[in-house]
Structures
1.
Amino acid sequence: KQYRSVVESVKEVFFQIDATGHWIFLNSAWTTFTGFTVEESLGKNCLKFIDLDDHERYQQLWQSLVNGEKDSFKHEIRYVTKTGKCRWGEVNIHSSLIIDGVVTGFSGMLQDTTELRKSQALEKEKIKLEADIQERERRSEIIRKSLEQEKELSELKSRVISTISHEFRTPMMMIQSSTELLAKYSEKLSYDKKLKHFQQIGWAVEHMNQLLTNVIFLDKTESGELNCHPEYLNLDKLCQKIINNLQVTLTSDYKIDFSSQSNSSQVNLDEQLVGQILTNILSNAVKYSPQGGIIKFDVFCQPEEAILTIRDSGIGIPAKEKQRVFESFYRATNVGAIKGTGLGLAIAKKCVELHRGKINVDSEVGVGTKFQVVLPYLD
C-alpha cells in the first residue's frame, strides 16, 4: 500500500511486465500519458501500445533482456495514445523478478518526453532559421558588394571613357588643324609658323603618349607586374632632379621651395617609384595652385624611413572627397576648368603601397593641400 501510494502520486509511469511482455502493473500516470485506463491495459502485451515504426527496435532490446544479454536498457520509444496520436517516452527498464535463476519479470519507469522533444525540435528549428537568416544575410552582403563593385566599375568605365575622350580630343584636333594648315599652305607659311605647328603636333603626340603611359603604368601596378627594387641612392639629389625637370615646364610664376632636414646621401629606396610619387604630387600641387604660388617640399630622413611632405596653397579638396582622390580617373568636384586625367594620385598611391609605405592627405578648400608620404627603407 505504501509503494502504491508513492507511485500513484508521481507523474512518471511506473510499471511491471512479465516474461512474455504483458503488463502486470501500471500506475495511474499511464492513463495521463496514453489515455488508456489501467484496467483496460493490464494483461495486454506492451508492444500493442508502441508505434509500429519502433516495434523492431523495441523487440531487439526486449530480447536482449529476456535472453539475459542485458539486465537493463534505456531508450526513447513512441507510444500510441487512445486517440491515435503518438507520444514520446523514455523507457528505463531492468530485470526485477528472478525465480530459480530465471528472469520472470521486469520493472521500469516511463517518462513522457514529448514536450521535451517538441522543445528540442523548436530549438533545432530556431537554430536552423538563425543559420538560414545568417546565410541569407551573408548572400545579401555578397550581392550588395557585388552590386557596389558593379556600380563602381560602371562609374569607373564612364570616367575612363569621359577622361580619355576629353584628353584625346584636344590634341587630336590640334594635330588635325596643324596638319591641314601645313598641307594647304606649306609654301606660303614662314619657317617660324611651320615650326610652331610642328611643335604643336609634337606636344599633342606627347600629351596622348603620356596619358597612355600613365594608364599602362597604373595597370601594371594593379596587375602585379610592377615590383619594388630598392637601391642605395641620394634622396636629396633625386628630389632636386625631379624639381629641375618640373621647372622646365613651369612659368616663372611658380616656385618649389625645397628643404632637406637630414643627411639623405645613402637611403635604400626604389628610384622609379619615388620618382613617380614625387612627380605626380608636385605636378598636382603646381596645377591647382594660383599664379605665383609657392609649393613647399620638405624631406626628413629618419633611421628607418623617409618622410616627404608637399604643401601647396591651391584650391584644396572637399572633405568628403579626400580619400576618393586616390581612385583611378576620379577628379574632385571643385576642379572647374583645370585639365587633368585623375590618374596622378592613383599612381602615386599604388607606388607608395608597392614601397610598403603610407600616404596621407590633409586639405581645406580655398586654403591648400598637404600630402605626406612615409617610405620605409627596404632591403
2.
Amino acid sequence: MGLLSKLKSSIVNAFSNTTEKENNFSYLQHSLSLGCTTGTLLERGHDAPHGGQFVTIPFRNCCQNFISFGSTGEGKTSAFVLPIFSELLEADNRSMGGLIFDIKGDLIYDLQKIADIQNKEIKVIGLKEGQLKCNLLADLNPSQATDFLQSVYLLDGNKNNIDYWLKAALNLTEEGLRILIYTSDYTLKGLYQLIFVEDKRKEFIKEAKENHSSLIEKDTDFENAIYYFENTFAKLPENLRGSIEGSVLPILKPFQDAVFQKVFCDTNDENNYDMKKILNQGDTVIIDMCLAEYPKGRAVYTLIKLRYYNLIQSRFDTSKGLNKDRYCFFICDEFQDLIAIGASGAGLNDGTFWSKSRGQKMIGVVTSQSYNAILNSLGGNEHQAKTVLANFVNKVVFKLSDDTTIKYIQSLIGKVDVEKISHNSSTSTKGWGWNNTSQNSGYSVSTHEKFVIDEELIHSLGEIKDADRPLRTALALLSIEGRSCDDVVVLQPIYFKK
C-alpha cells in the first residue's frame, strides 16, 4: 500500500475537522492555509514535515509570492487559484483588495460565484456592455507611459534587443505625450492620431499651446516637444520618418480599434475606474478579456499590469494619498503570456518589480504550464527566467510531463544520500569427507546521492480516488518564517456547476 493510501483516512478526517483547522490557524485573518501534508518527502529522506499537518502561511510569507506549474486540467485553477482567492476575500477583516487577469476568459464565472457566496462585490473592466472602463494613461506622466509602452513592444519577440528604430520610436512617443498632456485627449488613441493623422496633430498642437500659455511657470519639456514635432520630425526625409513611424505602429496599433478606444481611451474620469480604489477601498477588480478572442489585448493587459505595479511601488509615498497598511493581491493565470522585461533589465517590469514587492504588502499568485513556457516567453534567456522565478519563493507543482520543469524543481530541492545494502554469501569445500563444506555470508553498505524529486513522483500527483470529497495532490515548495516547508500536500479544489 502506497504512502498516500495509508494517509488517506487521516487526511480526509483532517479536512472534515473544522475545529482542528481553527486550532491550526487556517482561518486566522492574517494567514493563508494551503492543504495538508502527507509526509512523502520525509520518507524520501528530505527535511520535511510529518504527514497530516495543515500548512498555514502568514501573510508576510505569502508576500514572497506563489507560482504554480502543471499541465492543463491538473488543478492549477480549481485547487490552487480558486481556494486562495476565496481565502483572500475573507482575510484581513474582508478588507483586502486586488487585481485579477482573466486572460483565458474562463475564470470570471467561478470568481464571481465565490464573491457572491461571500457577499463581496467584484468590479469588472472589459469589452462587454456594462463593464467598466479604464484610461490606460491615467496617473502616468509621459516618461512613465513611454517606459510602459516599451514593454508592450518587447512582448512581441524583441526581448533582448532595443535597436535604433525602437529608440527613435520611443523618443517620438514621449515627445508626443508631452504635448498631449496639455490637451483634452491624453490617451493612446490621441497619441496614435497625433503621430499618424496630420490634421489631428495640428489640432492637438494648437490646443496644447493655448493651454500651456496660461501657465505661470513654463514647461521646458513641452516646449522641446513642440520644437521636435515642428522642426525635427516634420523635416526628416520621408523614408526615415516612415521607418520611425513603422516602429511605433505595432505599439499603438491596438488602439486604432474602436472597441479598445471606447474602453481604454476614455478621457472622462467619471467613466473610468480609478485603480487607487484597490488600495484605498479594498476593491477586487477583474480584467475580463480573452486573449484568444482579442490577441491585441496583450498590450492592454501589460499596461494595466505595469500601472498596478507602479501603484504598489508608490503606496509608501505620502504625497500619493495611498493606503499603505492594507494587504493586496495580484492573480494571473498563464502568466508567461504577459511577462515583460526590458532589454537592459532596467525600469519597471517583471524583473525589477517582483524583487521589491514582498516589502510592499502584495501577494502575487500566478500560474504557468511549465518552466519551459516561462523560458520561451523570455526568448530563451535562462538567466532572466530564473531571476523572475526566484522572486516567486512559494511554488506549487501539479502533475506535468515537461522534463525541463522537473529538472528545475529537482535543482531547487537537491539530492539526499541513500544507503544501499548488498548481501553476499559464499560456499567453499575442503578435502573429502563429512563437514568439509563451509559457508560464509556478509553484507556491504554503499552510499550514493539521489534526487528527492523524480518523474515518478510528479507523474503520480493528481486526484485522490474514493475520497468523500474532491481532493488532489500537489508538490509544494514553501518558505514559512525563514524555513523551507516542502512536501506533497493534499488540496481541496473548488468546483461549480456550469
